[in-house]
Each structure stands twice: as structure tokens, then as C-alpha cells.
Amino acid sequence: MKTPIQMLEVFVSDIIENTVLLEEIYKKSKELRNGLFYKQPNSFNAKDRR
């Protein structure tokens, strides 16, 4: 059985790990939005949707 302090350490480490992952996802999505892979929503006409 873990002590309350040990449980808190696990909880905090999980939060830190998830925060790092979210930062990486945000950075990557920002790169994709600003890069070649991002298509402007209004950059195509109605013919392209058929």
C-alpha cells in the first residue's frame, strides 16, 4: 500500500507527463497549420468538392 505522499507523487508525475505530451501535440499542430500540409478552408471552389 502506498503512502499518501507516494500517491501524490504518482499523481503529479502523471500530470507532468500529460502536460509535456499536450505541449508536443500543440507544437506539432501549430507547425502543420503553418506548413505545407494546411489547406485554407476557403482556398477551394465548389467544383473541388465533387
What's the helix and strand layout?
Elements: H1 4-34
Secondary-structure class: mainly alpha
- Range of strand content: under 5%
Count of helical stretches: 1
Order of helices and strands: H
| Average predicted local confidence, pLDDT | 82
Which residue ranges are poorly predicted, with pLDDT under 50 across at least 5 consecutive positions? none
Oligomeric description of these chains: single chain
The major β-sheet equals:
none
Tell me, briefly, the overall form: rod-shaped
Rg, rounded, reads 21 Å
Number of strands: 0
Distance between the termini: 61 Å
Characterise the protein shown here.
- The protein has 50 residues and is mainly α.
- It has one helix and no strands.
- It has one helix at residues 4-34.
- The radius of gyration is 21 Å and the shape is rod-shaped.
- The termini are far apart.
- The mean pLDDT is 82.
Briefly say what this structure is.
With 50 residues, this protein is mainly alpha-helical. It contains 1 helix and no strands.
What key phrases describe this protein's structure?
single chain, mainly alpha, 50 residues
